[in-house]
Amino acid sequence: MPTYTKSMQVLIEEFSKMPGIGSKTAERLAFYILKASKKDVASLASSIMRVKDSIGFCSICGNLSEGQICQICREPGRDKATVCVVEGPNDVIAFEKAGGYKGVYHVLMGALTPLEGIGPKDIRVEELLTRIKSGDIKEVILATDCDLDGEATALYLLNQLKPFNIKISQIAYGVPVGSNVEYTDQATLAKAIEGRRAI
Questions:
Q1: What is the CATH number of the domain that holds 119?
Q2: How much is the average pLDDT of 74-92?
Q3: Residue 49: how many other CB atoms lie within 10 Å
Q4: Rounded distance between C-alpha atoms, residue 111 and residue 119, angstroms
Q5: Domain shared by 50 and 14, yes or no
Q6: 54, 69, 91 — which closes off a domain?
Q7: Within this chain, do residues 44 and 97 fall inside the same structural domain, yes or no?
Q8: What is the pLDDT of residues 112-158, one digit of tens each?
Q9: Is-contact 73 104, C-beta < 8 A?
Q10: Pick from 34, 35, 14, 33: which is nearest to 23 by CA?
Q11: In the predicted model, is pLDDT for residue 176 greater than 80?
Q12: Alpha-carbon distance 101 to 42, whole Å?
């Protein structure tokens, strides 16, 4: 078994704590740091600290922001009456990369996971209801993940939103563009049929 100096072992362990980073990748990253110039390592460390110091969450939608209000909520061309509800900031980025959506977002910062003790008070449900009570929102699009927790969250939100006089919709789940039907999993095909629309 390879033996490392104490500082290298600590660095490998720190990298291993990151999501999706196994022991082999952690070792490669540690060796990259070892071989990199002091200037590059200092730049990396500075970038990490800058992210920790400057990025917070938007006071309106909960998305990542370098100020009180995020760039999307500040954008004048956005349809502020349409709110897309997502589980995390990474979902906002996915929708923005896909393009086409011109409304704003509400980031829940998680999903209902009763087995882990995560209930409605642990995610940003109250903040969403407060936004809707303002009367400015006309449509809420539920865009939680297509798994048990995401579906449970969407169902809970649907029940909470029903008393309001707003349009409630859910994104359609279906066959990815460019893929073959025969290679698509059953759950995706079932959702594709359920989410069909007239043409």
A1: 3.40.1360.10
A2: 94
A3: 10
A4: 8
A5: yes
A6: 54
A7: no
A8: 998 889 999 999 999 999 999 988 899 999 999 888 898 899 999 99
A9: yes
A10: 14
A11: no
A12: 38
